[in-house]
């Protein structure tokens, strides 16, 4: 059976993506007679003075032909004696970057075309970064239009140097750099006599032989449940595609997130009963007992998958409206879709330099690292560990438009120390909620708050003393009473983290772990405050707080029209 290669072509406008694939199909005699004849006739009224315009094979939309650019993603299937192919020809114009990202999401390999006259452009970098973001590990950089520069080797070597810098910057893997002329056919399906100094393979030969299978780091078996099948009262099966490992009748599986155990009673592939199944097979699995499983749950065996409702993700923003922290979306991870909110835009990534830029919002076609809070814990993993459970999309809850796509970079759960405490030093840990934001939701008429997934701060670190709903002095003492830890901050930097037993009042402002001012202005009042805290219970807690704590001194509530409560 022939192997299948799924690849994408991308690059800047008019770099020759459609022409390249059209030429492969034409030269390799992969067209029906009527397609070939139609292409030849269409070319006579085209833009090449009667010569065959190979791009017409893929640029099927009338708007594309009129503009001479690709707008939509054109998918084509073809096969040679050695391999089957599915190719996605994607737009080059920046306005259609989101279309290009859709094509990249399915591909194993990317062909990025570069105009030999222009070299590596910003759009080249953007496409390479997006392809890498989508998990593509194999790249072909096709330096096109070599015929227009007289097949100049020196110019090619200059561009090759630019590509090598990009390779290092993005940590790209498995790249090939091939000089071609898509219109003239140089190094497209056969080696070019015009480029004798190039000793590598032509593009089609390279595609027929490249090995895109990589050793999997995944351990054990897991299958996200796509559908619960119950044709009658005696059968209940869980349907989905096996993403890793294998499963056999009689194996014990664990259901996540319910964490129940059951035995595999039967496995069905279409209408056949089978004893075992492996990766990439779509199956129905019946268990020997009833379990709490629905769409979005995961069946596992021998895995370390965990549930979380807090993630950090790198996303490509595709919506016309801006992304700002606090707006809620539907988040789809694997087969699970649920409400979520972008709690923080940590930084955006400059597509040209890779620099991390501080920002509070994101515009269309920009890439950023964001923190996202989900309405409930789901099974999720880092993208570089489990691709299926680490890729996500954000869907606008009003327009139902896909607003962003991205990958999970980090996850936080109840066992993860980042989710449990904010300050740490010399074995002391404190759960400071001092950086929570407070919002009044004008839609639900209620007070809401969210806590961005922040850093763990220690001595010498600088803390953020100003947020949307809080503003603290640069010199401050934080008393985290529930953990009995004192944090001293001077000029916005932590100078000491100590037990409250060792704490000495020095006259600076004091707040508790939630950022509320403590109404104590002397060593005696501090001692009285701490002694009363040790004695409080549910009955007198309100009295204690009213006496000693002021909410509004350094905090305020922000009105927000579109904030989802967590």
Please outline what is shown here.
With 566 residues, the protein is an alpha+beta fold. The protein has 10 helices and 36 strands.
List the defining traits of the structure above.
single chain; 566 residues; alpha+beta; 8-stranded antiparallel beta sheet; 6-stranded mixed beta sheet; 10 helices; 17% helix; globular; disordered C terminus
Description:
The protein has 566 residues and is α+β, with helices and mostly antiparallel strands. 17% of the residues lie in helices and 36% in strands. The chain contains ten helices and 36 strands. The strands form nine sheets. Strands 7, 8, 9, 11, 12, 13, 15 and 16 form an eight-stranded antiparallel β-sheet that branches. It has a six-stranded mixed β-sheet with strand order 2-3-1-4-5-6, with helices on both faces. The longest helix has 18 residues, at 153-170. The radius of gyration is 29 Å and the shape is globular. The chain starts with a strand and ends in a 6-residue tail after the last strand. The model is unreliable at 31-36, 41-48, 59-72, 414-419 and 562-566 (pLDDT under 50). Residues 2-216 form the Tr-type G domain. Its EC number is 2.7.7.4. One of its GO terms (biological process) is sulfur compound metabolic process. Keywords: ATP-binding, GTP-binding, Nucleotide-binding, Nucleotidyltransferase, Transferase. It is an enzyme of class 2 (transferase).
């Amino acid at each position: 059976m022939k192997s299948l290669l799924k690849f994408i072509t991308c690059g800047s406008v008019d770099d020759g993506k459609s022409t390249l694939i059209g030429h492969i199909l034409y030269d390799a005699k992969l067209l029906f007679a009527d397609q070939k004849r139609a292409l030849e006739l269409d070319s006579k009224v085209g833009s090449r003075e009667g010569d065959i315009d190979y791009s017409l094979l893929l640029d099927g939309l009338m708007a594309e032909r009129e503009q001479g650019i690709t707008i939509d993603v054109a998918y084509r299937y073809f096969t040679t004696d050695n391999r089957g192919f599915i190719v996605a020809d994607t737009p080059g114009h920046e306005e259609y970057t989101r279309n290009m990202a859709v094509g990249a999401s399915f591909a194993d390999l990317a062909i990025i075309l570069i105009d030999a006259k222009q070299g590596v452009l910003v759009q080249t970098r953007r496409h390479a970064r997006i392809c890498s973001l989508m998990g593509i590990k194999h790249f072909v950089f096709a330096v096109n239009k070599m015929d227009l520069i007289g097949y100049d080797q020196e110019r090619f070597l200059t561009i090759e140097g630019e590509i090598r810098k990009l390779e290092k910057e993005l940590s790209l893997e498995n790249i090939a750099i091939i000089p071609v002329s898509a219109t003239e056919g140089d190094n497209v399906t056969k080696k070019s006599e015009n480029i004798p100094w190039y000793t590598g393979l032509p593009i089609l030969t390279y595609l027929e032989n490249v090995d895109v299978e990589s050793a999997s780091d995944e351990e054990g078996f897991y299958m996200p449940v796509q559908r619960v099948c119950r044709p009658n009262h005696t059968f209940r099966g869980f349907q989905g595609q096996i993403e890793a490992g294998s499963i056999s009748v009689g194996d014990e599986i664990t259901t996540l997130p319910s964490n129940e155990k059951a035995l595999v009673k039967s496995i069905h592939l279409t209408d056949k009963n089978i004893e075992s199944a492996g990766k990439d097979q779509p199956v129905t699995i019946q268990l020997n007992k009833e379990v709490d499983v629905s769409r979005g749950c995961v069946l596992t065996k021998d895995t370390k998958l965990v549930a979380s409702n807090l993630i950090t993700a790198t996303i490509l923003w595709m919506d016309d409206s801006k992304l700002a922290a606090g707006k809620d979306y539907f988040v789809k991870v694997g087969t699970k879709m649920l409400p979520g909110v972008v709690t923080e835009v940590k930084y955006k990534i400059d597509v040209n330099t890779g620099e991390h830029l501080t920002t509070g919002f994101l515009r269309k076609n920009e890439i950023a690292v964001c923190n996202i809070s989900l309405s409930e814990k789901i099974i999720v993993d880092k993208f570089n560990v489990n691709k299926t459970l680490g890729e996500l999309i954000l869907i606008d809850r009003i327009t139902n438009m896909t607003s962003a796509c991205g990958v999970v970079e980090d996850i936080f759960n109840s066992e993860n120390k980042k989710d449990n405490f904010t300050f740490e030093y010399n074995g002391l840990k404190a759960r400071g909620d001092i950086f929570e934001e407070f919002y009044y939701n004008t839609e639900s008429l209620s007070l809401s708050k969210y806590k961005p997934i922040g850093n763990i701060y220690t001595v010498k670190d600088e803390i953020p003393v100003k947020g949307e709903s809080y503003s603290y002095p640069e010199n401050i003492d934080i008393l985290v009473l529930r953990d009995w830890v004192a944090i001293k901050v001077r000029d916005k930097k932590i100078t000491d983290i100590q037990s409250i037993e060792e704490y000495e009042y020095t006259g600076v402002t004091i707040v508790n772990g939630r950022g509320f001012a403590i109404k104590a202005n002397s060593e005696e009042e501090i001692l009285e405050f701490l002694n009363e805290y040790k004695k409080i219970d549910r009955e007198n807690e309100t009295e204690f707080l009213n006496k000693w704590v002021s909410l509004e001194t350094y905090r305020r509530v922000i009105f927000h029209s579109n904030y989802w409560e967590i």
